[in-house]
Write a structure and sequence with these properties.
Layout: E1 3-4, E2 21-24, E3 28-32, E4 39-45, E5 58-65, E6 72-75, E7 82-88, E8 93-94, E9 102-103, E10 105-113, E11 122-127, E12 133-136, E13 142-146, E14 163-169, E15 175-182, E16 189-192, E17 197-198, E18 206-207, E19 209-216, E20 219-226
Parallel strand pairs: 3-11
Antiparallel strand pairs: 1-4, 2-3, 4-7, 5-10, 6-7, 8-9, 10-11, 12-13, 13-14, 14-15, 15-16, 17-18, 19-20
Length: about 230
């Protein structure tokens, strides 16, 4: 992994974990899709691959799981040893057309060939938390994220949030912020585009918010606290 979009905590995602990195190894990289952005970009470098007999190599990147028509793989050098991946948000979908098995992952495989044989694949994977329902406008603007679906997600990867965020925009498309509706509450909280909570009764005042995991009843959820 050479470069990647880095969402800002408290603005682009809400969690007590600092980033979306899951792990990096020589043969596999994995990320959790944390950002509210419609897509994320990653630059991957596999130029360190070598043939033991010094034969010239060919690099081949393939979408193994996910919507191939929406995932962009852009070569950054002539032999594709470096690529820029653009991965949009994926909801739960069949692993292939007509399959009853569904997945919340995108997997891109890298195969390196020496003219006679292809290597076993290395993998780049992105996991999309299954406890979220997202709505995007056709122009790419985020309209809403409901974090309270209740679908199980490994707590190592993501913490449930008992709220829904509806996003607000100016006429020219500039995001103003979002309105947060907590479970069981009809009145929403207003947030600025930078993630500050607007003080009720005075739109000129805002406060920072800290996100922490907390046990409520028989479940652990993410809660917001003034900071």
């Amino acid at each position: 992994m050479l470069e990647q979009d880095r969402p800002v905590p408290g603005r682009d995602f809400f969690d007590f974990r600092p980033n979306q990195r899951l792990f990096d190894t020589p043969c596999a990289c994995a990320r959790v899709y944390k950002s509210t952005a419609g897509s994320l970009r990653f630059i991957l470098d596999a130029s360190a691959s070598r043939d033991l007999n010094g034969k010239p190599l060919t690099w081949r990147w393939e979408v193994l799981r996910g919507d191939e028509g929406r995932i962009e793989i852009e070569k950054m050098d002539a032999n594709a040893s470096r690529v820029r991946l653009t991965v949009p948000w994926h909801g739960r979908r069949p692993v292939y057309a007509g399959s009853k098995m569904e997945s919340n992952r995108v997997d891109v495989g890298l195969f390196v060939g020496n003219g006679k044989h292809w290597s076993a694949p290395a993998f780049f994977s992105v996991y999309f938390p299954d406890n979220q329902k997202r709505t995007y406008h056709p122009d790419g603007r985020l309209l809403s994220i409901d974090y309270s679906l209740g679908n199980y997600v490994d707590p190592v990867l993501d913490t449930p949030r008992p709220w829904r965020d509806d996003y607000r925009y100016e006429a020219n498309g500039t995001m103003l912020g979002w309105t947060r509706f907590h479970e069981g509450e009809e009145e929403g909280q207003e947030f600025t585009s930078e993630g500050f909570l607007v003080v009720k009764g005075d739109v000129r005042k805002t406060i920072r918010v800290r996100y922490q995991a907390q046990k409520l009843g028989n479940r652990v959820v993410l809660v917001q606290e003034p900071r």
